[in-house]
Structure formats: structure tokens, C-alpha cells
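Minutes, project check-in
Item: structure for the 212-residue chain
Input as provided by the requester:
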Amino acid sequence: MIRLRAALAVAGFALWSTAVRAEEPELDLDIVGSVRVGYGWSRLLETRILSLSFEDQLRVYRLTDDLGLTFVFGMDGQRPWDFDSRRRGFLATTLGAGLLVHDEPGPAFTLSLTGAPLWQGRDDQTALVGFGAGLRVEGYPFYQSLVEVVKCRRGAFATYVLSGLHLFVLGRYDSIRVSGESFAAGLGVDLGRNAVLPVLGAVLPAACSQQR
């Protein structure tokens, strides 16, 4: 809930800035809020896995025109693909850094490295059971920066549907009594671009809502 409120605040501020302060220089702001699902294999769990994650990547510093340094935080979970398996998955609360590469108007790529404590739950109790690290690469074929999305430069469909769609590849190394690697690949959407901004764009004086 806190992360959703933060995403709403950032998106709302960006929309307000575009509508009210259009005559001033553009905000140099970008954030990705990925919700992902994937399939893979875990040597730690010794089984096929379902990979689920929700992470924010906030660009905190622009290294070059096309390359930015990001601060990454969120959740990364794994569980056995077979729901009747006796093996137990885990939830990692991730924190780390990464890179965002985007040469407008082309695609974007992200690279992130995170560390995390690992949690498992049983009988309504959650316990710290280990630690791990993850390396993730994402590709956004139709990416638009937050400023592009707010201005709706490519139309509503490209802005609110295509811009947040992406692919990812993940490698993790985790330790829960024993250590092991896991690998997964899958699809994702961007919470802000595909869910929050379309709603705000419909009620605030944003560019897409003005295109009738």
C-alpha cells in the first residue's frame, strides 16, 4: 500500500507539472514499477519454479543522456511450480542499484543487482530464513520515459499499453541452510504506465485525455 501511494504521488506530480507548468523546462524524472511473472529452475529448491516480483527502479542520477543510475527496491518471490510440492518457496525483500539505458525514441534496457533477506511463512508466522542476491536484465521494446508518457507523444495505446510491457531474465543465488542458484525468465508490466497513469490521465488535464 505504501509503494502504491508513492507511485500515485510521483505520477500525479508529473501530470500536474506537465499541465500547470508546461512553459517551464521538462522534469528530468523517470521511474519503473515492474510487476513480473516468470518460469524457471532452482537448484536450491531442486524443482521448477514460479517467479513473482514487484520492484521499483527510480533513476537517481543521469550518467549520460542515454544512461542513468537507478535505486532498486521491492519484493522477489519464488515458489515451486507444482502447487502440491512439499518444498517451500521464499520471499526476498530486495534493495540494490542498477542501470537504465534508453536512447529516445528507441527501446530501453535495465540491469539491476540486489541483495535481500529471505522470508518464509507457515501457520500465519513469518520468519527470516536466509539471505540472497539477484541479477536481473529487462528489455522494454516500446519504452517511453515518464515525461514522454505524461505528454502522450505517441498516442494513448502506445503510451498506456505498449510502453510498460517488457521481458526479463533473472539469476539468483540464495542461502537457506544450503545455498544454490536459480534462473527464471518471463514477462512484466509497469504498474505506473499500465495502471496508475491511465486512471490519473482520465481525471486530470493530461495530454492523452485531451486527445479525442
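Outcome recorded: Residues 28-190 form a domain with the Porin fold (CATH 2.40.160.20).
No further action items on this chain.
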